[in-house]
Amino acid sequence: DVKVTQSSRYLVKRTGEKVFLECVQDMDHENMFWYRQDPGLGLRLIYFSYDVKMKEKGDIPEGYSVSREKKERFSLILESASTNQTSMYLCASSSPPLTVWVNTGELFFGEGSRLTVL
Amino acid sequence: GQQLNQSPQSMFIQEGEDVSMNCTSSSIFNTWLWYKQDPGEGPVLLIALYKAGELTSNGRLTAQFGITRKDSFLNISASIPSDVGIYFCAGPVSGGGADGLTFGKGTHLIIQP
Predict the structure, then answer these.
(1) Do B45 and A50 touch (CB under 8 A)?
(2) pLDDT value for B31
């Protein structure tokens, strides 16, 4: 079974703390993503990575950074957590599509990490 | 970024009823995906559509890729309690490839016994 594992299901942090959210996938996927999910806003892309040590900004990167030192691991970092970063964070991975006319592979998601910043 | 308009935002239905939801975009997509998120879990892919006009079924689920490539529909027949959850439409971020997916805001499906 394919597996994307997020290290913490629930976290409570204080404003100003540094927060690390870890994600590991066992499918040897090249691409990894971090989304946040908020009621009424759906899923919004924070950052993604298509190779080790490579990263690209998504739609809402402000206040976040990422690290991809190994292919299987993609970390989301909140340098100084704020209350507006209280959210559900979802990690996902994918492989490049097998045919050129399909421009995305299926995304496999982890179970999510619910972060509360007080 | 690209936006997907998904409706309805929520649905309250009786068990056994059919369900229909849709997604529209101002941009052309060449792939449409439908995901379902169970409570407390991450989204899981239900159906993928790759050709305009394509109609694809997965059990009681049927999805269509609109002919204009700017919309897609998901239908669920004879709903059952385990259909409860949030349904998302998704399409590739412009540029495609490794850029990930853009998602609609979701349709909450609630089934009353």
Answers:
(1) no
(2) 86
CB-count burial class (<10 Å; 0-12, 13-18, 19+) for B10? exposed
The amino acid sitting at A112 is: G
Is residue B92 less than 8 Å (CB to CB) from chain A?
yes
Say what percent of chain B tops pLDDT 70: 92
Nearest residue to A66 (alpha-carbon basis) of A54, A84, A81: A54
Q: Which residues of A touch B (CB under 8 A)?
A: 4, 30-31, 33, 35, 40-45, 48, 50, 56, 58-59, 90, 92, 94, 96, 101-104, 106-107, 109-112
- Alpha-carbon distance A15 to nearest alpha carbon in chain B (angstroms): 25
| DSSP strand pairing (B19-25 vs B4-7) | antiparallel
Report the gap between the CA of A42 and the closest CA in chain B (Å). 4
DSSP-derived 3-state class of residue A95: coil
| Chains A & B: contacts with CB separation below 8 Å | 77
Q: What is the pLDDT of residues A7-45, one digit of tens each?
A: 999 999 999 999 999 999 998 888 899 999 998 889 999
Yes or no: say if A23 and A107 are a contact pair by the CB < 8 Å rule: no
Tell me the pLDDT tens digit for each residue of B73-82.
Answer: 999 999 999 9
What's the average model confidence in pLDDT over B35-48? 92
pLDDT at A89: 98
Minimal CA–CA distance to A3: which of A54, A49, A72, A97? A72
